[in-house]
Amino acid sequence: MSTRLEAHRVRVDLAHRDRSTFLSLVSMLHRRGVDVVEAQLHAVTDHHAGFTATFLATPSHATTVVASLRNLVDVLDAELSSAAPAASAG
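Above: the chain's sequence. Below: its structure in token form.
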């Protein structure tokens, strides 16, 4: 099990598009103790929204964070991916 901090990106699909939903997501990230590098709420439709965040955590901690986000009421889905920069060819 790795204890090294890595950059992770989470993409969350939301049932509602409002400020309180955004604050709930950010609050969850804060409660889980991750260092958030970037967070953004964006409109998908008139009523639905998406949320993306990049944060630093160990792989196991990142998995726990995403599971916690999935348990929030307005969250339809959450997907975790690596936010490591792609290696440049050359």
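The mean pLDDT is 89.
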